[in-house]
Write a structure and sequence with these properties.
Layout (H helix, E strand, L loop, with lengths): L2 E5 L3 H13 L6 E6 L3 E3 L4 H5 L9 E3 H7 L3 E4 L1 E6 L4 E5 L5 E4 L2 E4 L4 E2 L7 H4 L6 H13 L3 E7 L6 H14 L1 H6 L2 E6 L4 H4 L6 H10 L3 E3 L4 E5 L2 E4 L4 E3 L2 E5 L2 E2 L30 E3 L12 H19 L11 E6 L7 E6 L6 E5 L3 H16 L1
Parallel strand pairs: 1-2, 1-9, 2-5, 9-19, 11-12, 11-17, 12-13
Antiparallel strand pairs: 3-4, 6-7, 7-8, 10-18, 14-15, 15-16, 20-21, 21-22
The structure holds flavin-adenine dinucleotide.
Length: 376
């Protein structure tokens, strides 16, 4: 019998649990998922939530109900500490407070919002890294009537898709006011567009899309501080705003740093099998992983597939075979002819496919709905 412990109930943790549950005999092996939140959140839909196009209940579902139906034990609790010698994990929560033993552990706790690296972020910026945060931003959008809207990313924000989609949604919402000159929209990136998308050269298509929506795009603006009404950068920029949405800097969870398995941003180092460097019987998947480029849900899902297949192989006495390939496959939904589909190999830039057109917005909506129906 093997005890498999999954830490985190986002895309990476949930899909790992589903894949293992579909393959392993649950009368013989125990799969446990631990997460502090009782709900799964479908993050890509939070832009729609902020703009009032759906409800919170449309983008979340109960983890316990879902996991119980597939024979996975759910523990609502928080990871505190891992002891590699005894192969135990300390959990604090209502369901369990104490240690849980594992034969295999999967680290899937996602990113940490390191707002402390941008003074003033907490006081002045909105973000969309959660249901409540997206709803609070939505309330500000409703009240906004005139002025400058800034949408962008702090250094290490690593999430360019919702930045672009929020800017396009703003341009649709305030189209008349933009024509009248009472609302202006700026998008800012800490680096080039190419760097923001892991090296993919989509800047021409994206720039022309921003231009056709009247959005002013600024690159190489490494935000260093936010004050009331002003963004300051370490390159000397001073940018005024009346409404501000920023992706904060990302870090891995600092709670693992004593294990020596993380890089200098606390992301966990893994090999191509998603096996953690320097920690036996441990895999890591999703935003927590120390791979370059943006952090996206489809990467988390693919990594979960790979880790689950390799855990099953190990349990069956074989060496891990399944390899992860790091690529971007995403749609930037501009609701119309400017929507972009990008497929790009971060580890192999020979793989490059870019398409633009009306089709991609509805295709993303359809894919997102289907994903939620299949996994809820
Ligand atoms: C607004 C927005 C829009 C996005 N749009 C897209 C898009 O269009 N396309 C795309 O591919 N990606 C998109 N993403 C990115 C995508 O959502 C993430 O890449 C994905 O959520 C990563 O999955 P994950 O499981 O690694 O992390 P998460 O989904 O963040 O899950 C982490 C899990 O770990 C749990 N956890 C945290 N701390 C602990 C702890 N101490 N102990 C136990 N559990 C813990 C959390 O509660 C959560 O359950 C978007 C993200 C946002 C915020």
């Amino acid at each position: 019998m093997a005890n498999i412990l999954i830490l985190g109930g986002g895309f990476a943790g949930l899909v790992t649990a589903e894949r293992l549950a579909a393959t392993l005999d649950k009368t013989e092996h125990q799969i446990t998922l631990v997460a502090p939140n009782k709900n799964f959140t479908f993050y890509p839909a939070l832009v729609h939530l902020a703009f009032g196009e759906c409800e919170a209940s449309d983008v979340t579902f109960a983890l316990r109900t879902k996991l119980e139906t597939i024979g996975v034990r759910f523990i609502q609790g928080e990871f505190i500490r891992l002891d590699p010698q005894s192969r135990t994990v300390e959990i604090a929560g209502d369901d369990v407070s104490g240690e849980i033993a594992y034969d295999y552990v999967v680290l899937a706790m996602g990113r940490r919002l390191a707002t402390e690296h941008t003074p003033g972020f907490f006081e002045h910026a909105s973000h969309m890294l959660g249901v409540r945060a997206a709803e609070r931003f939505g309330e500000k959008i409703k009240k906004f009537t005139a002025g400058t809207i800034v949408v962008g990313s702090c250094p290490d924000g690593r999430l360019p898709v919702p930045v672009c989609e929020t800017a396009f949604a703003m341009a649709r919402r305030f189209e008349k006011q933009m024509q009248a000159g009472t609302v202006r929209i700026k998008v800012i990136f800490p680096e080039s567009l190419q760097s923001a998308f892991g090296g993919a050269t989509l800047h021409k298509e994206l720039e022309s899309a921003f231009l056709s929506h009247g959005i002013n795009v600024l690159y190489d603006v490494p935000i260093s501080e936010i004050t009331e009404g002003k963004i300051l950068s370490s390159a000397g920029h001073e940018i005024d705003y009346d409404l501000l949405m920023l992706i904060p800097p990302f870090r891995g969870p600092g709670t693992l740093s004593y294990l020596g398995i993380s890089d200098d941003h606390d992301f966990v180092k893994v090999d191509g099998h998603m096996y953690v460097h320097g920690l036996e019987n441990a895999y890591a998947v999703g935003d927590i992983v120390a791979f370059s480029g943006p952090k996206l849900a489809h990467m988390a899902v693919r990594q979960a597939d790979v880790a689950a297949a390799n855990i099953v192989a190990e349990i069956q006495g074989h060496a891990p075979q399944e390899e992860y390939y790091h690529e971007i496959s995403t749609v930037i939904d501009a609701r119309g002819a400017d929507s972009i589909f990008l497929h790009y190999g971060i580890w192999d830039d020979d793989m490059y496919r870019l398409k633009k057109g009306y089709f991609w917005g509805p295709a993303k909506d359809f894919h997102d709905r289907l994903w939620q129906v299949r996994h809820a």
